[in-house]
Prior knowledge:
Radius of gyration: 18 Å
CATH class: Alpha Beta
Order of helices and strands: EEEEHHHEHEHEEHEHHHEHHE
Distance between the termini: 31 Å
Largest sheet: 7 strands, mixed
CATH topology: Rossmann fold
Oligomer: single chain
Number of strands: 11
Amino acid sequence: MSVFAGLLRCPRCGSADLDEGSSFACPACAATYEVAAGFPVLTLPGPGATRTRIAAYYDAAAPGYEASHGIGHPGGAWSIREKYVPFLARHLGPRDTVLEIGAGTGKLTVELRRMAGRVIASDIAPGMLRWAREHGRLEAGVVADAERLPFRDGVFDAVVAMNALSYCVDKDAALGETRRVLKPGGRLLLIDMNYLLHFPYLLLGLREWRKARLWTGQLLESTPWGWNRRIRAAGFRITEAFEFNWVPHRFEETAVRRWMAPADRLLSRIPLVRRCAMRIGIAAVAP
């Protein structure tokens, strides 16, 4: 049985009758989709220069991404272990079928596979998925656009998106697609960057704007109030929302243990300060 059994649909016409083989074909509209490095590429060509540039950027960046972005450093590992995993574990179960949007190098995918029964990783950049599979972090992956997901209605128990939806050009479309693929009562678990309130991120956004002009406009929309408003407008009921994490990825283990983790505990107790933390966490339930 295919790892995608009962999940995929044609992103062009919405038909659930995709034929799997050396390529994926839709009998209904005659669309064909290539398989690149073992992953079905279920995206559509067309308008969206920003989206195309983002995909190309991350595709090329995949081999050195964890080193350049600090994810592989002790501070990054601490954040996932102490902050992300407890949040996700509160909302996931061992029988859940989970879609991860923007899986990237699979750093979080590994943790999701320990919590859930079935995890499908998706990313707009095939190079990211290829790197994750080569390092043993994922089993099933799809090259997909979050604004036009190639999955059937109501097939996932949860959708997880870490630092992904903020890059979407049309965030409302992405949230609408997330709601569509969730079962009734399914959960959206969002972890994203607090771009406007966390000043170092704001500086990073401005630097990236000067360097590549790829996504700053989208990222500056990533705020606690913005996500709360958009998620509710998409029809979700928010069950948990908070700002968290003051530990930068690039700190080494000793500094994290002795200085940063205690500082994080202290700063997290102060409401106005906590509002300016690095990350936004939101859990929401689909109707």
